[in-house]
Amino acid sequence: MRDCELISCRLRRVEPLCRLPGSALQQLAMCGFYEDLEKGVTLFRAGEQGRYWYAVLGGQLEVRYHGAEAKDSKQIHSFYPLPVTTFLQNDN
Boundaries of each Cyclic nucleotide-binding domain copy (predicted)? Predict the structure, then answer.
């Protein structure tokens, strides 16, 4: 199954997204790729330019803050289990 088909199939199972027309889900799916990640993989780091959006369809997402010193590292938030995690920002 191609990524596009797999993604749109998985997105249809997410409660807020299942209300979207099939064409909208297809467009979202065409802009992305499906990836199973191993535990401990870093998706992005503070200060990196945001180029992607992520739909976490299963498992756990942890947000961490790393200070200048290793001892300053702390967990800010842990999301588990969630069907999808979306972060929106309004600059207005």
Answer: 34-63
**DSSP letter for each residue of 20-61:** S-HHHHHHHHHT-------TT-----TTSPP-------SS-E
| Secondary-structure breakdown of the chain: helix, strand, coil percentages, each rounded to the nearest 5 | 25, 10, 65
- Could you tell me the two tokens for 35? 């990836």
Cα separations in angstroms, 11 against 58, 74, 83: 12, 31, 9
pLDDT in tens, 14-60: 888 889 999 999 998 888 888 888 888 888 887 888 787 787 777 78
Answer yes or no: is pLDDT of 8 > 80: yes
More reliable by pLDDT, 43 or 81: 43
Q: Give the separation between CA 4 and CA 64, rounded to whole angstroms.
A: 30
* Size (the chain), residues: 92
Domain boundaries, the chain: 3-38+50-79
In whole angstroms, what is the distance from residue 22 CA to residue 45 CA?
A: 33
